[in-house]
Each structure stands twice: as structure tokens, then as C-alpha cells.
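Exercise 7.
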Amino acid sequence: TDKPVPVLAVTGQDLDGVKLESEVFFPAGIKQALTGWRVGFPTLINDREVNLVQGTTANGGTATLCFDVETGLLTRLVRFSDSPVGRVVTRVDYSDYREVVGVKMPFKWTVTWLDGRSTYELTSVQPNVAIDASRFARPAPSAPPRP
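Solution. The predicted structure, written as C-alpha cells, is:
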């Protein structure tokens, strides 16, 4: 299970990557999230053929989107960001697509990065539900650990 961490400021290519990961759930803006679009050679992921499309984020990060040839659904997002120790890779694998009011949504995705992996699974999706704005407020700073 994931454990809460202190609130951190996300900037530069890391911020671009987080924004991109959220865009894939609402793909109408994906064309604006990346520039310099390029098409790669088809390849296999889990014995399924995928088409590769690559672009660049506003701060110079690179992202590759892998689309299943048969279904057209996004199978994988791989993004690269620069860090003091070199390029850092974050990979997101999408699966268990289900229809929600006429749109196919991934109900499972696994994020793999430099030092770990997290899997997220949804049990249901309720579109257009009113959510109180206070739910999006920045949390209070965590208390420092006691010695």
C-alpha cells in the first residue's frame, strides 16, 4: 500500500509528466500536452501489437504512447525526465478497460518508476458527480517526526 508523504512541490519535467498522466484519462487535450509528434515502429507488448507515438513536453521531457493495434486503446505510457543523476523513466501500463457512459476507461493501471511500483484498481466510475472544492485544497503540512 502507498503511504502518505509530505506535500512536495512538483516542477519542470516532473510536473509535465504528472499532467500528461492525468491527460490520458481525459484525452481531448492530449494533442496539446505534447509537441513534436513522431511515429515509431510497431512493437509487441504482452504478445499484442502496438503502435508507438512519441512527443515532447513543454519542459523538454519525452513521452511515448503505445496504442493496441486492434482496439486503439492506450496500453502503455512511458515518460522520461531529466534529473541530476540522469534520465528517469516512469512507465504506466493500462488495462481492464470498461465502458463508462460510452467511453472506454482503464479500471487498472500500474505505475513503475525508479524505486518502486504501484497498482491502482477502480471498482466503479461515476461521471459528472459534484465534488466539493475543499477536497482539492492543499493538505496541512505533516508534523515532523518525533525523536
